[in-house]
Amino acid sequence: MRKRKVVEQLKASFGQVKREGFQFDLIERYFLNKENSDSFQVLSDKTCHDIDFEELFMFLDKTCSKVGQQYLYNHLRVIPNALVRIDQKEHLVERLTTDIDLRIKTQLLLKKLDKGDAYYIASLFQEEHQKPPRWFFLVYLLSAAGLLSLLMLPLYPQLFLVFLGVMLLNMGIHYWNKKNLYRYVGSIPQLLQLNSIAQHLFKEELFQPIDPELPIAIRMINQVRNRMSFFRLEARIQGDAEAVLWGILELLKITFLLEPLLLFGVLKRLDSKRKEIERVFRFVGEIDLLISIASLRKGVAMYCLPEIGDSEFSAQKVYHPLISNCVPNSITVSDKSVLLTGSNMSGKTTFIRAIGINVITGLTINTCFAEAISIPRLRIHSAIRISDDLMNDKSYYFEEVLTIKEMIDSSSLGAPCLFLLDELFKGTNTIERISAGKAVLSKLSKNGNRVFVSTHDLELTEMLTDEYDLYHFSEVVIDRKVDFDYRLKKGKLASRNAIRILQINDYPSDLIDEAMDISKKMDDNALVKTL
Question: What is d(CA 296, CA 195) in angstroms, rounded to the nearest whole number?
């Protein structure tokens, strides 16, 4: 009955957003400790913050296991050098979408790794293991002494004091070792589970091409299976609180110092099998990732597979996946960047984020939220959210200066970049903001880079027409209502409604008149200077 209920839940949840808590400090552990230097790009914390990466991950994550969840997180933050075996992966996603029995069978196996302890499997191949102390040779001696004194006690009762002394020493070492044991009492049983699940998954012919040599790794880990089974027993007893059995085992473990001997013996063997453990981890994580992609595509209203090209950047009906009923927009740029104008809340920043998100998901999980999309391989950098760093005594402007400097350095490193910017140099005066903004945007757009930038400074639209295609978002003010259509429109913003919006919100009439008068004079002066 319970299995049937789980099966029904799995069927019902396919394509749905998870309704559970996300422990990002544990989810990101595999990513933080992984060496990704051979990748095309590792997304920075700044870019992740700018595009609301954690919220995006919660939307994208449809994995069944903690291993798959960690693997997906790493996969989304690390853009690979090439779209590796993309046809093979798409074939697997298609089968997992259409073959419900295969998918459910696979998910039932993966759900066995849904306990929190599974988050720590990666530590067994990523982190340094606990080393035995220099005096550890005494453990062997005291273990033998405990056995000998116990065997001789019926023949020589006078040895009771010796036995008692050995037991006291062994008890001290036993409980000293508890902190070491607790570090692994969760992860090692989960490793046994992982290896068993990988072995079952590999029996499915469909999954074997993911890693044809996986059985070698499974066999090598199984060489330590019997010793590791002790930790599975330890974890089960702790969970069920079977006091009598626990007490008997505890006496045996103290007498013969079983825990430290087994723990450090297992760790020594696992230390030589790091590559094999990671290989099994990746195999299971990859399968869970593919099911997650299939579920994601099932649950969205519209998606497409991206075309990864050399230069053209085009998107038909692209949208932001985290915004309910988001208005889709289309854009095509060949060799230019994009300069967006429009009022606050009109959709500029949302559109820029949507572009960034779709490039990331396109290059990582081969899935975009659009009717059709063509993108080049680009490294992604952003300056959307910038705030004062009060702890380090950095002003908004100085923080922005440092962020933009990093972009300028990246713009000439060889591989083309995608720069996402919102309101450049907001922290300074108008003349210097426009002057510096024009120079920076011209610099960033060179060397095959693409820039998507929003601005309120209409002067920049005149200065950058040779390097940037101009687009805008606009609103309509009717009576006392402001209506946004969130539609991307070609060209620069022609109308301005900021003062009108003040007026419909009951600002004093003399203030509105003065503002209108000043605005007209400034426009006239700008026109004279242009002529």
Answer: 27
